[in-house]
């Protein structure tokens, strides 16, 4: 049984470019957290023509309590899979928040404190399928977010993805998870899970 | 799809998907529609689900005018029917919506509001169709307009919409907004027995005694399905109790007054709202749709700072819940009405407030949601 | 004759809204008679017939006849009928429209009803004019027509309803006139029995609003015109092109047996519901 965390509006933004599977990533994550971990979770997204090419994003608010306002107010975590998204959304990250970037695409981070893995490069070189970028990222997130259990994510993938592409995605998920664990073994200790609602910046 | 096998009937779904769940739970077996952002997922999911429903029919029509016509026809044939659209399509539906009001055909129209007028901001939230939902069709008519603010409520209010439509033989408009429709959340799908599902009253008398628009105590005449042996005339012309066109003033008056009475006399049944920490509130936010969620967080923030704030979340927009608003207007020093339009519900609030308390409006029409901090500021300044 | 009258009275709501609105010499009554004879000869019960009508003189037909009747909004009759037929495919749904109804305000609905081949019988009563509103030009008013909105002669060309229905994919398309009443009976009965979308265009005179302004002294002249200027399709096809220009062909233009959308949808539904994992 994984450790149950008490969350009060943990806000995470997944961002990148259209075509990187950001929305799918958000949907799978939301589903895993809401249905398998029993959190309250709202997932919203930027929607419309800009979702096809250009900046793309999916936002999640995760809480142990009922969520009133469904959109993020102050990000606890920003995942940026493109330089543009990183530049655009870094200002929404709260000072104690964490940044995770795709180091194969984000070369200039706005802060020296960040976690980075070359998701796109890993997808291309290790998995042989660039479309697996988002699932590798999901695997890494299941390490970085201590309240998201790797085994649950793995189980959920089987219910979400068609059988034909399941195996390669499980491989991608496992790769992301193990690489993150190897590079940042103590990442999960850095979180302090309380967030008084401060309202300096909003999107 | 994947969540089907779960023991708990819980799914992680969009507001639009929840509408479909609610409709199917309420017994909807006929959908006609035309794609329009941001309502399209309703049509998409319906097209996949209805063929698995007993006698279920999904049909994509050539435009919204035709969609409305088709669901009126299907409702007359005995089905529970619905369509979904957004602003521009809703405008096109108004003529036939008026027909449904005049002929008292039960049906549900979901309007996922977006920025307007005209093509406006197709992918941005707005609440600009509130007064159109009430007064969109020509001529004086009663109508029920509901709203929902989260995904679970999308499901529940769709069921309520069908129940009201059937019970009062009237079109019911469910107003959603882009945020409510496109937020994914965990919802639990109730079992059919968890809900009271209502069906229209059909005639119990033999066909020769049947009077199709009879003046009854409830004001709601029985409606048999077409082809069931009760041959009657349906017309958009002003009609007498037998359904035939008339222009006699006493018959016209009787028809119009009955149609208003059948909604008015059940006002307390139709008036739905939620109160959050209103008991001792000195400042109350009156909100609906996605803005009600911002307001709820704002009220929470104000309470943390010791300000006695409350939220009145309107689920029924029309007939306007005047008794709920008036009760709070008497109690508090200000009502705050934030909405994503230039003041379509605040004008109703001001009307029923009639000088009782101070009304503060907060209107936003730039395609962005009103944030909790904006409403928080309103509360602190009130 | 007495027998015919008796039969019609069996189908009219005789204690309801009479006298009717039709002018002396109007052909709409002949269409109604023909429709009743067709329904009777096919043995349909009154309960299974739904008559859906639009707005205009033709739309009033729904009031007079003792079927399930729905008098809809202008131009939208086909959309209501589509809903009724899809909801209950056992009903015989007959749609009565005028030329303004079917070709102008409801033109798009006609195109799409024909394209999706929904199992309806559409009767388009073409009198080349907006009669009820006082004689304005309609999309089937011939070029040169003098009307309330074309006082100096209509400049636009007119629609050919039959060509339009065929191009849109209707499975049965015919044209008749109220003068050729026996032929009209057989066209309507045939249409009612066909699957899919059937359309019968019926030429019917409006002397009050069209004839008087367009050189027809009496309504009889208009019926004479139908006699002289229409040709059965078989004969018409043998005419030389310059001869053809003088005549309007009448008869059956297309007669295909294709299942209606409501049948195809029911088949799909049955197939899906029979699947083990459904």
Q: Which descriptor suits the 3D outline of chain C?
A: globular
Can you tell me the CATH architecture of chain C?
Answer: 3-Layer(aba) Sandwich
Greatest interface: B-C, 45 and 43 residues
Number of helices of chain C: 13
Approximate strand percentage of chain B: 15-25%
**CATH superfamily (homologous) name of chain C:** Thiamin diphosphate (ThDP)-binding fold, Pyr/PP domains
Low-confidence stretches of chain B: 1-8
What would the principal axes of the Cα set say about the shape of chain B?
A: globular
What's the N-to-C terminus distance of chain C?
59 Å
- Can you tell me the CATH class of the largest domain in chain B? Alpha Beta
Number of domains of chain C: 1
Q: List low-confidence stretches of chain C.
A: none
Q: Radius of gyration of chain B from the CA trace?
A: 21 Å
Number of helices of chain B: 13
* DSSP, total strands of chain B: 16
Distance between the termini of chain B: 47 Å
Radius of gyration of chain C: 19 Å
What oligomeric state best describes the polypeptide chains here?
heterotrimer
Summarize the SSE layout with pairings.
The complex is a heterotrimer of chains A (203), B (382) and C (278).
Chain A lengths: L9 E8 L4 H15 L3 E6 L9 E9 L11 E6 L2 H7 L3 E10 L12 E3 L1 H9 L5 H12 L5 H11 L5 H18 L20
Parallel strand pairs in A: 1-4, 4-5, 5-6
Antiparallel strand pairs in A: 1-3, 2-3
Helix pairs in contact in A: 1-4, 1-5, 3-4, 3-6, 4-6, 5-6
Chain B lengths: L9 E5 H12 L3 E4 L6 H10 L7 E4 L3 H13 L4 E5 L1 H17 L3 E9 L5 E5 L4 H6 L8 E4 L3 H18 L2 E7 H5 L1 E5 L44 E3 L13 H16 L2 H4 L2 E4 L6 E5 L2 H15 L4 E6 L1 E3 L3 H10 L2 E6 L6 H8 L4 E6 L8 H10 L1
Parallel strand pairs in B: 2-3, 2-4, 4-5, 5-8, 7-8, 12-13, 12-15, 15-16
Antiparallel strand pairs in B: 1-9, 5-6, 7-14, 11-13
Helix pairs in contact in B: 1-2, 1-6, 3-4, 10-13, 11-12
Chain C lengths: L1 H10 L16 H15 L6 E5 L7 H4 L3 E4 L5 H11 L4 E7 H7 L1 H10 L4 E6 L2 E2 L5 E2 L23 H8 L3 E6 L3 H13 L4 E6 L3 H5 L7 H11 E3 H6 L2 H4 L3 E8 L5 H14 L4
Parallel strand pairs in C: 1-2, 1-3, 3-4, 4-8, 7-8, 9-10
Antiparallel strand pairs in C: 5-6, 7-10
